[in-house]
């Protein structure tokens, strides 16, 4: 397309200058104007559709972007919903498990509380004797403390409750004690003060003193020789093998020789440090029992695991006895008659047959597995 160049001459005049002046006396200004063939204006006209095209493209891009964002957001919401449902299911399962554990712990706590109540209410439990008010004392209830020993004066009111010298000592040993051994005048006076009078003056309390025939001397139950003597002078020449302490007699002379088969009352004595040793022994035994119980619990758990494994094992005889979990008296292919099970070995080929000894050995193999013959 060719363009035309038009030149326009513009003349500026003033009032004082005549219009007849020559053209070369004036300034001449040229303006270059490019025009199309069909247009004379210096600025072309732009169509409306061309102006709106960029705006439409931008809106399309925004719409596509929003659509993609919505798809991504929807996918995220779906994934989050699935995850929340999974977590919720896991939480429900865990909550159910915790509730079962809680119930088991409650049952175990109740068992322990019952056991503790039973122990605390048991009449022979040592804590009740040592600590009736939950305050530990050096001696058991009804025992009397003197210096470093505890004493129990058995004051049975009836003859049927009394014992011989040997029977009294055996009763003492059951309580981790022994018949009293008198080591000083103070202890002798203490014992005389706490004995009770019986209407027969010849009755008293057994003490831990007896005559040793082999050694030909009087000895205490702890194998010590007799050094202090408080014999009753009226009974000095009497021959007997056991000694008792008379009630309400002069402490300097209230021991009396008598027959060991006589039934009277008696006096316990236990040294406090011996009690501590016995307590330590009981504590050690309790610790051993706790350890043994723990070992037994471990063995029980192992056996339970083994039993569960065996019950699921394909070759375990239970599967043969109980293919449908219904126990039968005989294995599969065996026939029950009265109280016995029979298996008829019907091998079709002679290669499977056996002689008498071989047949019996085969029976014994099955006996080891199932108890048959």
UniProtKB/TrEMBL annotation:
It holds the Pfam family Lectin_C. This is C-type lectin domain-containing protein. SMART domains: CLECT. Residues 146-269 form the C-type lectin domain. One of its GO terms (molecular function) is carbohydrate binding. Keywords: Disulfide bond, Lectin, Membrane, Transmembrane, Transmembrane helix. The chain crosses the membrane at residues 58-82. PANTHER family: CD209 ANTIGEN-LIKE PROTEIN C-LIKE (PTHR46746:SF9), KILLER CELL LECTIN-LIKE RECEPTOR SUBFAMILY F MEMBER 2 (PTHR46746). It comes from the Eukaryota. InterPro entries: C-type_lectin-like, C-type_lectin-like/link_sf, C-type_Lectin_Receptor_IMM, CTDL_fold. SUPFAM superfamilies: C-type lectin-like (SSF56436). It comes from Channa striata (Snakehead murrel).
